[in-house]
């Protein structure tokens, strides 16, 4: 399952859940599930020209995504914990669309997921075959539902502990999660450049 590894996206969704509640965490995670489904659809349809474009522009996708991650991490790290804590005590639906879009675009900034799905769905191209088309639709539905269920389960589990946190704990959660996200983003940024990438891969 592409969604399960808890990279920077997972850390960010956990932070959103702790800050705003289970619904906000699930909505944020849905952004990742929809982006994964978009990548899976490209792989299932066998859109070679899209895959070739993604491979050719991988550097720019990763570069922009890494900078975005660093900025998001720094924003969380520098956030006003008192204001966030007050909002978390009476969470509403405000800002959830923004959370969804943030995670959606962050997930899209890692287009190599297309190759992952391509390897998983090898032979599942839906061109001109009704049976293959049905199979492809089931695969895409599986990616969407599987990803959504995972983020729902994660946000639900995290939310069980949320009410136990107080201002001091929220302060450190923001600092630690923001720092982790920023560091991971910076490592992705470094990996965009060949000499450093070779060193990190060695």
UniProtKB/TrEMBL annotation:
The chain crosses the membrane at residues 23-53, 59-79, 100-124, 136-155, 176-196. It holds the Pfam family LysE. GO terms for cellular component: plasma membrane. It is a multi-pass membrane protein. The keyword Transmembrane helix applies. InterPro entries: LeuE-type. It is found in: Cell membrane. PANTHER family: ARGININE EXPORTER PROTEIN ARGO (PTHR30086), ARGININE EXPORTER PROTEIN ARGO-RELATED (PTHR30086:SF20). This is Lysine transporter LysE. It comes from Marinifilum breve.
